[in-house]
Amino acid sequence: MSTLIHNFLIQSYMTYKGLFYWLSLQSYISNVFLRPVLFLVMFTLVGRFARDPEAGERYIIGMSIYAVIWMIFGGILQSFARERGMGTLSVVYGSRGSRLVNYFSRGVLHYPNGLLSFGTCLIFAWLILDLRLSQVDWLAAISAVLLIAASTTALALFMGSIAIVFRDWFNGLSIINGLLLTTTGAIIPIASLPGFLSEVGQVFPLTHGLAAFREAFNGAGVSAVAGDLVRELLVGVGYAVSGYLFYRWVETMARRRGVLEYAA
């Protein structure tokens, strides 16, 4: 067990350092801290000038949480795509190492980056945008954020296998980002979505965790938001299991066909 943990930590560090291109000081600061804050300010100002007087605060909370998704998705997907592009994926497939360790280690050090982005947005909103924090139940709120980051990591790993087999993976990322932004309640209340779109977000990370976070922001405790927290956990577990199985299937097909791509 100690050897497995050691290998897991080493692979987490090496994949992060070797395949994460935002590790330079300028790139890291701009992507982890500045970009999420700019999106937060943009949507908040739009909300404050909208007809709905509560839109501003809703946008602050939604975009603060969405910063987790932006950071984790960008980091993990580029590690999958660039490993293939740099030619090291064939070495992974030719090795005898644990695929379970290799797969899940890719998300370890991107997870705290998402939390850093969220924390930056929340602090900025408190200092500059007058976000009120007096009623927040912090235990429930922190639990929601941690689960959102975990389920987002699971989905990003799942999408990583798609980045292996599709060269034009960035379009897929754009589609997923659009769906997460519009169907999870980050910006538009789920009840206001037309037709089946109100149900689409139920299978995505963020939807249930964000609902729990909004309740915790208004003072609800862990027991009051437990249902949403459990649902967020189940969504994350579902993507973790299906993502790993998909990752193994991609390797099996690559060995059988002798190529990685299934589409141009």
Tell me what the structure shows:
This protein is an all-alpha fold and 264 residues long. The protein is built from eleven helices and no strands. α1 crosses α3 (55-85). It is globular and about 55 Å long. The N and C termini lie far apart (41 Å).
Proportion of helical residues: over 70%
Count every beta strand, where a strand is a DSSP E run of 2 or more residues: 0
Taking the sheet with the most strands, its summary is:
none
Mean pLDDT over all positions? 84
Counting DSSP H or I runs of 4 or more residues, the number of helices is 11
State the secondary-structure class: mainly alpha
Strand fraction equals under 5%
Shape: globular
Are there runs of 5+ residues with pLDDT below 50, and where?
none
Element pattern in H and E? HHHHHHHHHHH
Radius of gyration of CA atoms, rounded to a whole number: 19 Å
Measured distance between first and last alpha carbons: 41 Å
Topology:
Elements: H1 2-19, H2 25-48, H3 55-85, H4 89-94, H5 99-105, H6 111-128, H7 138-165, H8 169-183, H9 197-200, H10 207-217, H11 222-257
Helix pairs in contact: 1-3, 1-5, 2-3, 2-6, 3-6, 3-7, 3-8, 6-7, 7-8, 7-10, 7-11, 10-11
Features:
single chain, 264 residues, mainly alpha, 11 helices
Short description:
It contains 11 helices and no strands.
